[in-house]
From TrEMBL:
Pfam families noted in UniProt: PMT_2 (PF13231), Wzy_C (PF04932)
UniProt domain O-antigen ligase-related: residue ranges: 212-364
Keywords, sorted A to Z: Cell membrane, Glycosyltransferase, Membrane, Transferase, Transmembrane, Transmembrane helix
GO terms for cellular component: plasma membrane
Keyword flag Transmembrane: yes
Name of this chain's protein: Uncharacterized protein
Listed transmembrane segments: 34-56, 76-93, 99-117, 129-148, 182-201, 207-224, 229-246, 252-269, 347-368, 388-406, 413-431, 451-475, 529-550, 556-574, 581-600, 606-637, 649-665, 711-730, 751-772, 778-800, 821-841
GO molecular function: pentosyltransferase activity
GO biological process, any: lipopolysaccharide biosynthetic process
């Protein structure tokens, strides 16, 4: 390969990388159309011209003519050339020849791009594949910059160039000039990321590709582009339809999981002022300026076409013709931007309006040719991998053509993707073996039971935990403090140092939960839902992790469902799932670390993931997460003779990667002040002494378990008895007759000592240290509930075995598996009905009294009366965190004696105090020194003290 060929390859690679850099304000060099991708293409054209001259001199004119004759047989090239001719002829109607010439120059360069890509496909298949990987890489870079744009604004309050902030929506354009162009770019990549993830053997590569697809979809939503939403929805529907059409059921799972996650995002967005649902349905809302303007554009385009049906108004001349029309004048009333050239906002209507019926027919023929070639490649694919790749490309092409009904894309990336997809479909047979897969058209088998059970567990958990979440206000102290810290982080942009009051550092807990909560406050606003969200989300995840843990330990889906049912109906677990506290979150990471470590025998990456999980737990509630170390040590000990044990160092690496940086930074910044508070007071002192009077007897947590487990508590007692006897063995305890009797009943099957040991050590490693600690709080033992749920489920396994054993004696005309299924289903349904009915009856124990709800409503009333926040709001005899979290402006916290001496305070103030105390104090005030009631709700009163300013 000579230097010129290498240069052409490098330039085309750079061209692909630069495709998204179209923001004229950021990337042009003083001339709007002179953006990086076009500069590179101009240089590329010069190199191609040199190569053509060298080729002509070397091979002669006859070879060049032969090459041109070959190109003349290319149907797509012929159609592209005809469209070029129609567009040139349409200049006769143009009112802006300069704009028309600019556009035809662009379109001509795209025809050259097609010829160049075709040449590359014919000469270098490996490089053609590399180009598409480069294209996907450019999508990742664009998404990264888009995330930087949105996070800089959300977390730091910095608006980077290109980001549009206004109204109820952020418009995230990434490196594009127009926020509607980024989603079209992402649509071309999302299906391909998923398709490539199917066929990578390395788990980490699969995770990266699926995560890339999900991140692209989230960023697409953040563009709030209605055309993007439509195109993305169409591409998903087309891809799913074709996968179902070929019965590739296993390939459905990841796309459906991504769709489910995106539906959750849409649902959550509806709680905010940035509602994706409202944005989508605004298409039909003529009261919205954008919708009204687009409607007038549509009417104007149709009117211009009807007046010029053959050749249209001239390629590139839509804006001038539209401005001079009646609809153009109406459009100015809504969008008074006379000096800006208007695009047609539709690739289809652009062609119809500017080049008339002739141009529209040719354009449709081009798109039909591309789609037909892709469909042919799908039908004639030699193996599943290629078929899936072409399904992804076909879905993307249909997606951008659908979004093109509502927006126009005179961009290099639009034509590059169309040409690449077509050429790959036309040439892929040269890159593969002649023999196809024998199972190409065979239906893929999926054990839907394995899929639907955890999905059902997740949905039920989500409904129970998220139902009415945030209806109760935050409470003092933990919820209010964590919410206030997160609010301070989001307002100041300082995420490394937690603060409650001004600049005073707060060292009680690591900041992970507050880091997660801060952007939720930005999105959902300052309310209880924002603070409680992650606790609820991790609660759902804990229930799901408990299902998989029980299933893994017992090899039974039935016991997995039972364990998740027990956990979901455990009152204290459910109560703290719906509160913005740390205990459920750390419980999830502790449970997940055990689950991942049990999987480490299968793949080395699970060592790293288990360490990362424990590290995240440590960043949630520091040393509490380390209570799980004995059971992790037991699992590690069981691996000591396995080859995989050599990878155990990855566990420590994962833990250190997550937990070390913040602790090192904080220690370097604050030194022993940090250690004395973080370790000395909040760890050592809490264990060795009763802080704030929060203590209890040694066995206090037995009462806590009784009140929390409720109907499961007696069963836990029986479970522990059978658990201990199975672990030790009845024969060893001298109870041979009881052992034989239980065996005849179906109880006391051969114990799996490893499973029993893990569960036994797990439960004790949490309960024993917390019981020995002098400071005791009921939520401290939340991390023990998952393992207790698994223990209880094992008891029901024994019970089910006894029932099954007895039922077989009746000679029922059922197969063994059928009988087991019936018995297990009856037991599971019965327990579900009983536990959920009881939960419903006692729901007040889960979501009880709203202690601060009335006070929060009074805060909002004050903010409506005096929205500026200039007049201070004082709270009398209440905690500090909740008022400071909800209230805006100046907030003061007073002891009761301050209200009695209010007459000495001259400045005007609003006050909130408890009703009984407020009425007693008000009786001491006179007309000359008034204290007026503004509003009262429940136990609280909002008052105003009018003083001289």
């Amino acid at each position: 390969m000579n230097l010129l060929d290498k240069s052409i390859k490098i330039l085309i690679t750079i061209f692909v990388l630069f495709l998204p850099l179209t923001n004229r304000d950021l990337f042009s060099f003083g001339i709007d159309f002179l953006i990086p991708v076009r500069i590179v293409f101009l240089i590329l054209l010069v190199c191609i011209a040199f190569k053509a001259i060298i080729f002509w001199k070397k091979c002669g004119l006859s070879v060049l003519k032969k090459y041109l004759k070959t190109q003349a047989k290319d149907r797509l090239l012929i159609l592209l050339s005809i469209l070029w001719l129609v567009r040139v002829v349409s200049f006769v109607n143009s009112k802006n020849i300069s704009a028309s010439l600019n556009l035809i120059a662009f379109y001509t360069s795209m025809i050259v791009l097609y010829v160049l890509l075709k040449y590359i496909f014919s000469k270098d298949a490996k490089f053609s594949f590399f180009l598409f990987k480069t294209y996907l890489l450019s999508i990742i870079f664009s998404v990264f910059y888009a995330l930087v744009q949105i996070l800089s604004n959300l977390l730091l309050g910095v608006t980077l160039p290109g980001l549009l902030v206004g109204g109820n929506y952020y418009r995230v354009p990434g490196p594009f000039y127009d926020a509607n162009h980024l989603p079209a770019f992402l649509i071309t990549g999302i299906p391909s990321f998923v398709a490539r993830g199917f066929y990578h053997n390395a788990l980490w590569k699969k995770i990266i590709l699926y995560a890339s697809a999900l991140t692209c979809a989230i960023v697409l939503f953040l563009t709030f582009s209605r055309s993007g939403f439509i195109g993305f929805g169409v591409s998903i529907i087309v891809a799913l339809f074709l996968i179902i059409r070929y019965r590739y059921w296993a390939k459905l799972l990841i796309p459906l999981a991504l769709v489910g996650f995106l539906i959750l995002i849409v649902f959550l967005s509806d709680r905010t002022s940035h509602s994706l649902v409202d944005r989508m349905f605004s298409v039909f809302n003529q009261a919205e300026r954008s919708t009204a303007a687009h409607t007038i554009l549509l009417q104007g385009e149709i009117d211009l076409y009807l007046k010029n049906p053959i050749l249209g108004v001239g390629y590139g001349s839509f804006s001038e013709h539209f401005r001079d029309s009646y609809y153009g004048q109406e459009h100015l009333k809504i969008d008074p931007t006379r000096d800006i050239r208007l695009p047609p906002h539709s690739i289809w209507l652009e062609v119809l309006t500017e080049t008339g019926t002739i141009g529209f027919i040719v354009y449709c023929a081009i798109m039909f040719t591309i789609l037909r070639k892709l469909l042919g490649a799908i039908n004639r694919a030699l193996n599943k991998q290629w078929r899936i790749y072409f399904i992804a490309l076909f879905a993307s092409v249909v997606g951008i053509l659908s979004s093109g009904f509502f927006y126009s894309y005179n961009l290099e990336l639009f034509w590059f993707f169309l040409f690449y997809s077509y050429l790959l479909a036309a040439n892929y047979h040269r890159f593969t073996s002649n023999s196809g897969d024998a199972d190409l058209n065979e239906s893929e088998y999926v054990n839907w039971t394995e899929v639907l059970i955890p999905v059902t567990v997740m949905i039920v958990s989500f409904l129970v935990i998220f139902g009415g979440l945030g209806s109760n206000a935050l409470i003092e102290f933990d919820e209010g403090i964590y919410g206030l810290i997160a609010k301070n982080m989001s307002s100041t942009g300082d995420y490394l140092v937690a603060t409650v009051r001004s600049n005073t550092p707060w060292f009680e807990k690591p900041p992970l939960y507050m880091w997660l909560t801060a952007p939720m406050i930005k999105l959902f606003g300052v309310d209880a839902f924002s603070v409680k969200f992650w606790s609820a989300m991790f609660s759902v995840s804990t229930v799901l992790a408990t299902y998989f843990l029980a299933k893994l330990l017992t090899r039974s889906r039935y016991l997995g469902v039972l364990a998740s049912l027990v956990l979901l109906t455990t009152f204290h677990f459910l109560r703290y799932s719906r509160m913005g506290m740390l205990d459920v979150t750390v419980t999830f990471f502790m449970t997940l670390s055990v689950l991942l470590l049990l999987l480490a025998r299968r793949r080395a990456i699970f060592w790293l993931l288990a360490g990362l999980s424990l590290g995240l737990g440590f960043m949630t509630k520091d040393f509490v997460s380390l209570l799980i170390l004995p059971v992790l040590g037991l699992i590690l000990f069981s691996y000591r003779k396995d080859y995989v044990f050599r990878k155990s160092w990855l566990f420590l690496v994962g833990f250190a990667l997550v937990s070390a940086p913040w602790h090192i930074y904080t220690y370097q910044r604050f030194g022993f002040d940090f250690l004395n508070s973080y370790v000395g007071y909040h760890i050592i002192s809490r264990f060795s002494s009763d802080i704030e009077g929060k203590t209890g007897p040694l066995l206090v947590y037995v009462d806590v378990l009784k009140n929390s487990l409720r109907i499961w508590f007696p069963i836990l007692g029986l479970s522990l008895i059978f658990f201990i006897t199975r672990f030790l063995g009845l024969r060893k305890l001298g109870l041979k007759k009881l052992n034989d009797y239980l065996s005849r009943l179906g109880f006391n099957r051969s114990p799996d000592f490893k499973v029993l040991g893990i569960l036994f050590v797990w439960a004790l490693s949490i309960l024993v240290p917390l019981s020995l600690s002098r400071t005791k709080l009921i939520w401290y033992i939340v991390p023990v509930y998952p393992v207790l749920a698994v223990i209880i489920s094992i008891f029901f396994a024994d019970l089910s075995g006894m029932i099954f054993s007895q039922a077989r004696r009746f000679n029922l005309k059922m197969k063994t598996e059928q009988l087991k299924f019936v018995i297990y289903t009856i037991i599971l349904l019965s327990l579900s009905i009983i536990s959920f009915i009881y939960l419903y009856m006692k729901w007040n124990l889960v979501d009880g009294r709203d202690f601060n709800g009335d006070m929060v409503k009074l805060i909002y009333i004050k903010q409506q009366i005096e929205p500026s926040g200039k007049i201070p709001l004082a709270f009398v005899d209440v905690g500090e965190a909740v008022p400071r979290f909800y209230a805006e402006g100046t907030v003061e916290i007073w002891p009761p004696e301050m209200l009695r001496s209010l007459g000495l305070i001259e400045r005007t103030r609003y006050l909130i105090a408890k009703r009984d105390f407020a009425y007693k104090v008000m009786s001491t005030y006179t007309e000359e020194n008034p204290l007026r009631i503004e509003a009262s709700l429940g136990d609280f009163i909002l008052m105003k003290r009018q003083g001289p300013e």
